[in-house]
Structures are given as C-alpha cells and as structure tokens.
Amino acid sequence: MKFLLMSDNHGRWQTVSALLERFASQVDYVFHCGDSEFPADDPIWDQIDARVAGNMDFDPNYAKEEWVTTPIGKVLIVHGHHHGVNFGLDKLVAYGQSHGASFIFHGHTHRLHATVVDQILLCNPGSLNHSRGAYDGTSLAMIDINQAGIQVDFLNEEGNLITELSQHFPPLGGDSDD
C-alpha cells in the first residue's frame, strides 16, 4: 500500500498539479493535509482521495478532518492547528487512538517528520511552499507499507528523493500487504 502526502502549498497550484501528474498513478491514496488555498470545488481535488482545511483555507466547504478506511487500517487526515501540533503531538495521538487510527497525517508546522507512537504512524510531509524545520527545502512524503515494514521517503517539489531523510519502521503490529 502506498500513500502520497502533501500539505501547506499555499496557493502553488502548478506544483501540486505537476506532482499529481507524476505520482498519482504510482500510489493507492493521495492525501492533502491543508493550507492549499485552493477553492474547495477546484477540479484538482478529483485526483486526491482526502483533503482538509488548513488555517489558511477559508472556504467553508472543506472538512476539518477526514477519515479514510484502507485495507491496512484507518487513516486520520487533519491540518493540525486544532490539535495543537505546534506544541507537540500528544493531543493528536490521543484523538487518533480514541478513534482507532493506524495512521495520522497532518501539516501546519511546515516541519516534516515521521514517527511511530503507540503503533500509530504519524507523518507531516512538510511544506510545498516553505519549510520551517531543519530541512530548508520544500517537501512531500511517499509512504510504502508492506510486510517488511513502513518506508517513509520525503521528496522535494521536483519529485526527487531526499535520501538523508528516508526512514524505515517495522510493521505496525499487524499483517500488512502491498
């Protein structure tokens, strides 16, 4: 199973469109974690399985959160500003746990990360506009989950692998299939 995660592009429609053209056919799900600054009825959303409102998405037709049930577990997609991600992930993890999440994907901080907490994979793909973290370039995430575990790769906006940021995690305590 493969997921493509994007967030915080802040109006960069051409960037998102080019990445979808390149990668959408290579993954099972595409998720956008907010702050696109696109209208909620933009046709680009037809290529994305779930998208949420960020603090800069003012269209009232965006959802604050999305839940997607996949063959390998429930995915929670949020922007993160309602869950205090600037101050840590505890509140978001607790919320996800209480609803049976296997995966939690968020944006907001513009700081890419991937970690496993209590058998839940959390990932922020970073920003497709500007980074605030240790990595100073734009980024998105590609996650590959199979029997060997979870491979999280971060890519730059040209779609090139940022090798030094790749992470591998063991399987999340259950059977996983490609």
Question: In words, what does this structure look like?
Answer:
The chain has 178 residues and is mostly beta strands. It has 2 helices and 11 strands. The strands form 2 sheets. A 6-stranded mixed beta sheet has the order 3-2-1-9-10-11, with no helix packed on it. The protein is globular, with a radius of gyration of 15 Å. It starts with a strand and ends in a 9-residue tail after the last strand. The mean pLDDT is 95.
Quick recap:
With 178 residues, this protein is mainly beta. It has 2 helices and 11 strands, in the order E-H-E-E-E-E-H-E-E-E-E-E-E.
Please give a handful of descriptors for the protein shown.
single chain; 178 residues; mainly beta; six-stranded mixed β-sheet; five-stranded mixed β-sheet; 2 helices; 11 strands; 31% strand; globular
